[in-house]
Amino acid sequence: MVEWMQNLMNELGYLGIFLLMILENLFPPIPSELIMPSAGFAAARGDLHLLGVVAAGALGSVIGTLPLYFIGRAYGEKRLIEWADKHGKWLTLSGKDIKRADDWFDRYGSGVVLFGRLVPGIRSLLSLPAGMSEMPLPKFMLFSALGSALWAALLAYAGYVLGDNYEEVEHLISPISKVVLGLVALWAAYVFIGRKRKQSAE
What we know:
By secondary structure, the protein is mainly α. It has helices spanning 2-12, 14-26, 32-45, 50-74, 77-87, 95-108, 112-115, 127-132, 137-162, 169-201. The protein has ten helices and no strands. The chain starts with a helix and ends with a helix. The mean pLDDT is 76.
C-alpha cells in the first residue's frame, strides 16, 4: 500500500495527496499517518512545497468527510449499525465502531469534530454521528477544516523533519493522541460541570 500511495503522489503531485486524503476518510485502512508524512518527505526532497502539501491534504480530508456526514444525516444510527455489522468488514468497519464514534459525539458535543480529527481510529468516523445529530453543515465544515488542517500540518511537518524515516511518524502519533484525548476529557468535564451549575441555578 505504501508503494502505491507514493507512486500516486509522484505521478499526480498535490492532486494525488488530495485524492488519497479523500479516500482515507472513506476507507479507514488507508492511513493519513503514512500519506501526509510521505508527502512531507517529498517536500523535504524539493519535489513539492510544504504549504502546498498541507493545503492539499487538509482540503482532501474536508471533502472526504462529506459523504459520511450526509449518509449519517440520511440514515439513523440503528440502520447504520446494522449495515456495518453485515457489510462493513471490507471497510474494517463494525457497528461497534459507529456506536463508539456516536458515544464520543454525544459525550463531548460538536467540538469533538475539531479535536477528534487528531485521534486516529476515531477521526474518520466522526462524520457519521455529526450527520446523525444533524449538526449544521457550515459549523461541521468549519470544525472539520480547522482540525484537518492542524492534523495535516503536524504529519507533513513530521515527515519533512524525519526525512526518509517518515514511516516512524505512525509510532510517534500515539502519545500525541493520548494528550489530545486527555484535553478533550478535561474540556468535556468543564462543559458537564457548567451545565450542572446552570441547571441548579434554574
